[in-house]
Design a protein that fits this description.
Layout (H helix, E strand, L loop, with lengths): L5 H10 L25 H12 L7 H9 L5 H10 L6 H14 L9 H17 L15 H8 L19 H9 L7 H11 L1 H12 L4 H5 L4 H15 L20 H19 L19 E6 L2 H13 L2 E6 L7 E4 L7 E2 L9 E7 L4 H26 L4 H21 L1 H13 L4 H4 E3 L17 H5 L5 E2 L2 E2 L4 H15 L7 E8 L22 H11 L2 H9 L9 E8 L5 E4 L8 H25 L7 H10 L15 E5 L13 E5 L9 H8 L1 H17 L1 H4 L7 E4 L3 E4 L15 E3 L2 E2 L6 E6 L2 H10 L1 H8 L3 E7 L5 E7 L2 E2 L3 H8 L1
Helix pairs in contact: 1-9, 3-5, 3-13, 4-13, 6-12, 7-12, 8-12, 14-23, 16-17, 17-24, 20-22, 20-25, 23-24
Length: about 800
């Protein structure tokens, strides 16, 4: 079959409606309705209800709670109701929505042939897609999903009329052609969409595997949507399930008429927007760099993550520090392999392809530390392997349990009753063990150069020769030109014109125990991985004298006394670790002072966050440490729960405002970006990613059973790729209840669509929307909202209405029209 085969084309189109899902160990937050973003929001959620069975709006009880607690402004609600031509007082409308909700409940047939197809297929998908959890792996996976299943299906008592492999079509293509026989080609896409949407979790994982670049599991155990559908349709035929959908989802009868829930949701969102925008500083200087004429003691750059907003406030209160927001991969698209890691990870958002391979190598003068670390690691690894062999060996298992039971019991008791003490013990061991960042440096330089060419060469030979050392086609390290470009992009996007003596790029990571969703708490901009390595790479680049020389020629004159450091913010405990092993003696006092102030900021931030968890404990630091070490803790931290806005602008816009950890903050100075290139990069990159994050939290909150993953207490991890509720079925794709709710009746995350606020001239934003239809479409279709604070119009807010229209005040109409 050729690549233009009509079956492949139909599969590709049908799969667009199902969102991509990443394995649990590299959890990537994404909009579960990403395939429907080309439709208005209310139409998309209606179609998703037909396809996946999920609700698209908060339950009426959630609206009632927001109304009664004052989160929805009465005046705003009245305006929204009047604008949509809805009569009735709020109380009556809430009762109407609740009554409609009660009348919609239906019970499905749990024993239908289609349910049996789902059950059997899920069993085989779990076996094939397993990523190292199973002790006995499914045989013949290297042959591909369909071929491996075909060989083993005769041994499955749940697959009828299949005595031998030859009873089944020989290839996936033949299986599909057999299943589609007699169906007109214009029905194929509907058939494929119906079957792909039946198990959207497994389908999303297969999509991710098929699209992944240099994925070792896909290389070893290939799977495709074609094979997936071949197995599913073959099972449907054998089990007597229908091939065609009973009803094909059609268009909403009235595309312009949104439901009553949409009105309430819009009123809630506008109420939040009005409070947010009303509290912004309307007296922002034209340039945010050094506006008070003084040089800060340090500049700290954090990820735009909402958790950074809290720690940034407390750092600024602790001393003369400037904080900034930048995407947590720090603009370096790399595939990273740590010194003690067996695999490489893509440390960049899914919408960005990695362009370099970077790994840690011991420095020449640190070989002793590396040897000590290797010895300790090999000892621990050998011990774990020995214990595992004893526990899994049939002959030794019983005697091992008898002999080691008391030791295991004591350890379990300590972890259960004294988790904070376990945290102290772990920290003590870590302090006595060399850490790779202490003796390793990332390979940021190209590994090979043409003979006789200096390190400063920038010609085509120097640029491309390093491709000889590649991982999946990726070159190891970067050329001088590439390094300078990444540093320049960072400074341009943040609008920097001055530099402190210390500049700290601060990635972030979480610390949890016994938590399948630990990757969901790491850096989303780093594809669910810690952000420290990305911070170290950019710091290494910016300390390079040759890079500084290139930057100086480009207008970024970095002072000789500026030193760049990397750090990592532990979002569970709010501790910030500085990677300062190579700091010059001239800056040691600066670093010591910064470290003291970071400890003060940590205590304040931890106290604020533990209060939001309603623990009733006074010592915030101790409580966060307990949560990090407690293997029974279902909520080690809130993650990005509560996120509701994305502010793009100078820190002066928000620095005196407590945003309650609900805002993504990206530094941007419109006055240093005359062509709008920096803003364009932010709107087409971080803005899109934050919309994904926001909508994942939104949908997991409004329907956790379909778009979330239920309670952690009853989850069953499967294959190191996802979780079940129970012992089978579809893998659940979203966040657990504990990440979203305080208790059964009290949500913590308010299900609001993202409000983006941009500090820039309206015409500049409008030009970007005109050039990028995909971004404008997200806003026009209601997946997020946009407000511009126009510095050329006295920083008055202007709200986007869709189709490049704004609700400008009278004095702004002419300016916007121009």
């Amino acid at each position: 079959m050729t690549r233009n085969d009509p079956i492949d084309d139909c599969i590709a189109r049908a799969a667009e409606t199902v969102g991509t899902v990443w394995p649990l160990h590299s959890f990537v937050t994404a909009n579960p309705l990403a395939g429907l973003e080309d439709r208005p929001f209310h139409r998309a959620v209606s179609e998703a209800e037909d396809l996946f069975g999920g609700r698209g709006y908060p339950h009426p009880s959630v609206f009632r709670q927001a109304w009664e607690t004052g989160q929805i402004d009465p005046g705003v609600l009245r305006e929204e109701l009047d604008a949509r031509g809805v009569d009735g007082d709020p109380e009556a409308l809430l009762k109407e929505m609740a009554a409609d909700e009660a009348s919609d409940g239906t019970d499905g047939d749990a024993d239908s042939p289609t349910d049996e197809v789902d059950r059997v297929l899920s069993k085989w998908l779990a076996a094939f897609l397993d990523q190292g959890q199973a002790e006995w792996a499914m045989p013949d996976r290297e042959a591909g999903f369909y071929a491996a299943w075909r060989e083993l299906a005769p041994h499955d008592g749940d697959v009828p009329d299949c005595q031998r492999a030859s009873d089944l079509p020989e290839t996936a293509t033949e299986a599909l052609e057999s299943a589609l026989d007699g169906l007109p080609e214009d029905r194929w896409e509907d058939v494929f969409e119906h079957h792909l949407a039946a198990l959207p979790g497994w389908t999303g994982l297969v999509k991710q595997r098929e699209d992944a670049d240099a994925d070792p599991w896909q290389d070893e155990c290939p799977v495709s949507l074609r094979e997936y559908l071949a197995v599913r349709l073959t099972l449907a035929d054998l089990l007597g399930a229908p091939i065609e959908p009973a009803e094909t989802p059609g268009d909403v009868d009235d595309a312009d008429e949104a439901p009553l829930e949409e009105v309430w949701l819009s009123a809630w969102e506008k109420s939040y927007r009005d409070r947010l925008v009303g509290g912004l500083d309307d007296d922002v200087e034209e340039s945010s760099a050094g506006s008070d004429g003084s040089r800060p003691a340090a500049q700290l750059v954090f990820c735009i993550d909402t958790r950074s907003e809290i720690i940034r406030r407390h750092i600024e209160a602790a001393g003369p520090y400037d904080t900034h927001g930048y995407a947590g991969f720090f603009g370096v698209p790399m595939r990273y392999e740590g010194y003690d890691s067996d695999v490489a990870v893509d440390a960049c958002p899914p919408i960005v392809d990695p362009e370099h391979r970077v790994h840690d190598r011991p420095a020449e003068d640190c070989r002793g530390d590396a040897s000590a670390y290797d010895g300790w690691r090999h000892l621990v690894s050998a011990g774990r392997k020995h214990l595992k062999s004893l526990k899994t060996n049939v002959a030794a298992a019983f005697t091992f349990v008898e002999g080691a039971g008391s030791a295991y019991g004591a350890a379990m008791a300590g972890r259960t009753l004294l988790p904070a003490a376990v945290h102290d013990l772990t920290d003590a061991v870590d302090e006595r063990t060399p850490d790779p960042h202490e003796f390793c440096a990332p390979t940021v330089d190209s590994e090979t150069r043409p003979e006789g060419e200096s390190r400063t060469g920038t010609g085509s030979a120097a640029t491309r020769d390093h491709e000889a050392h590649a991982d999946g086609g990726l070159p190891t390290g970067m050329t001088l030109e590439e390094k300078a470009s990444y540093a320049e992009a960072a400074f341009d996007l943040m609008g920097w014109e001055e530099f402190a003596r210390l500049v700290v790029f601060t990635g972030h990571a979480s610390e949890t125990t016994n938590n399948p969703f630990d990757a969901s708490l790491d850096c989303g901009a780093c594809a669910g991985n810690p952000g420290g390595p990305s911070a170290r790479v950019l710091a290494e680049i910016c300390n390079d004298p040759e890079v500084r020389s290139v930057l100086r020629d480009r207008g970024h004159d970095i002072p000789q006394d500026t030193v760049f450091l990397a750090g990592e913010h532990n979002t569970t405990t709010d501790e910030i670790t500085l990677f300062d092993d190579d700091v010059p003696a001239s800056h040691e006092e600066d670093v010591d002072g910064l470290r003291e102030d970071l400890a003060e900021a940590r205590a304040a931030a931890a106290a604020e966050r533990t209060e939001s968890m309603r623990t009733g404990r006074d010592d915030g630091v101790r409580e966060t440490e307990r949560r990090a070490a407690d293997w029974a803790e279902t909520r080690p931290e809130w993650g990005l729960a509560g996120n509701a806005s994305f502010v793009i602008g100078p820190r002066e816009l928000t620095e005196d405002r407590d945003l309650d950890g609900r805002a993504f903050l990206h530094s941007y100075d419109w006055s240093t970006d005359p062509d709008g290139d920096a803003l364009e990069a932010i709107m087409t990159g971080p803005l899109v990613v934050t919309q994904w994050i926001n909508n994942q939290y939104y949908f997991a909150t409004v329907d956790n059973a379909v778009y979330g993953s239920g309670s952690k207490v009853t989850q069953n991890p499967v294959g190191n790729v996802g979780v079940y509720q129970g012992n089978g079925g579809d893998v659940m794709t979203g966040l657990p209840l504990q990440s979203l709710k305080v208790d059964d009746d009290q949500p913590y995350h308010q299900p609001l669509r993202l409000t983006a606020v941009i500090h820039a001239p309206v015409d500049r934003v409008e030009e970007i929307l005109q050039r990028h239809e995909e971004v404008a479409q997200l806003i026009d279709n209601g997946w997020l909202h946009l407000t511009v604070v126009d510095p050329e119009q006295d920083n008055e807010p202007v709200h986007y209405q869709g189709d490049l229209e704004w609700d400008a005040a009278p004095q702004k109409v002419a300016a916007v029209a121009d």
